[in-house]
């Protein structure tokens, strides 16, 4: 594993929580409710906020971009979310939501010189990405940059995590894992309990069928856990994901990336101290180690 790939994984750990507040903070739900979304479940606002950069996307485009969500579940929300509010209104609301969230968490610190420096470094990394085959990254990079540094930092973190996410889907395709198989195989290596993936909308029958397909390939054992071959395949996916995410960090360089991580640490700390994010992530950040 190259040094730039290892750096890409470390920076993902640093920036993912900074981005993810949009989907969990009370302020984000308040802004979604003001647009007219039902916030009893987090999914209407999630699909609206995350899909809005793609424009008035239909269910097939959203299914392609999300990959590991059940097409049936996506069809329940997209394109219906645009009947509640247009993508442009959702984009405005999500910046307001992030602004309110970080002002609540950090107060006057959002206007400090460290934030401005972090925003400049993160934007430099984000603007260096190659967008070929990266629809979510490209759509977010096409958006105008906000004026406030803390929002520039958030938007850059969003571009970088979507760039990584788009690459992860390419790695899953390369490994021959469809959307449901991707989740089943990830749960099978202990990334997160299988129940944590229920929100992706796959039925029990679809989950069991995916297990059978993986077992037939020798990737799962009789106990439903990953075999040695199954773990090796998931290592391959993680390795390729890191390699495909390495470009902006290789260009930014380890020293400046380290400086960005240092400057962004108050944001990271504030998010965790506030308890905004789930204790067990379905991304496997705390449980899946980088392959050698």
What features would you highlight for this structure?
292 residues; mainly alpha; 15 helices; 0% strand
Description of the structure:
The structure is a single chain. The chain is mostly helical and 292 residues long. It is 65% helix and 0% strand. The chain has helices at residues 3-20, 26-35, 43-51, 59-66, 71-77, 81-84, 87-106, 113-127, 135-141, 149-174, 179-188, 204-216, 228-244, 247-252, 254-273. The longest helix has 26 residues, at 149-174. It is globular, with a radius of gyration of 19 Å. The model has no long low-confidence stretch (mean pLDDT 95).
Q: Count the helices. How many?
A: 15
Low-confidence stretches: none
Q: Total number of β-strand segments?
A: 0
Shape: globular
- Please trace the helix and strand order, writing H or E for each element: HHHHHHHHHHHHHHH
Average pLDDT for all residues: 95
* Strand percent estimate: under 5%
Q: What is the CA-atom radius of gyration, in angstroms?
A: 19 Å
Alpha-carbon distance between the termini? Answer: 6 Å
Share of helical residues: 55-70%
Largest sheet: none
Structural class: mainly alpha
């Amino acid at each position: 594993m190259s040094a730039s790939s290892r750096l890409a994984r470390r920076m993902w750990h640093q920036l993912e929580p900074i981005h993810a507040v949009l989907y969990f903070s009370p302020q984000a739900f308040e802004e979604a409710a003001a647009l007219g979304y039902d916030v009893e479940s987090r999914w209407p606002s999630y699909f609206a906020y995350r899909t809005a950069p793609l424009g008035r996307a239909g269910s097939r485009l959203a299914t392609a971009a999300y990959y590991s969500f059940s097409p049936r579940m996506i069809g329940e929300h997209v394109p219906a979310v645009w009947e509640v509010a247009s993508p442009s209104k959702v984009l405005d609301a999500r910046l307001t939501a992030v602004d309110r969230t970080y002002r609540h968490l950090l107060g006057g610190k959002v206007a400090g010189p460290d934030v401005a420096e972090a925003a400049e470094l993160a934007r430099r990394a984000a603007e260096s990405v190659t967008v070929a085959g990266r629809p979510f990254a490209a759509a977010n990079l096409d958006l105008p940059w906000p004026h406030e540094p803390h929002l520039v930092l958030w938007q850059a973190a969003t571009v970088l995590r979507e760039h990584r996410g788009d690459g992860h889907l390419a790695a899953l395709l390369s490994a021959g894992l469809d959307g449901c198989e991707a989740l089943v195989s990830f749960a099978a290596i202990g990334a997160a309990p299988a129940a944590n993936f229920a929100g992706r909308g796959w039925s029990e029958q679809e989950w069991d069928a995916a297990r059978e397909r993986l077992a037939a390939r020798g990737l799962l054992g009789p106990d439903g856990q990953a075999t040695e071959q199954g773990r090796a395949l998931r290592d391959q996916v993680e390795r390729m994901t890191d390699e495909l995410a390495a470009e902006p960090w290789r260009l930014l360089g380890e020293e400046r990336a380290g400086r960005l991580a240092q400057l962004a640490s108050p944001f990271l700390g504030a998010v965790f101290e506030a308890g905004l994010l789930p204790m067990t992530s379905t991304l496997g950040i705390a449980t899946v180690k980088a392959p050698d």
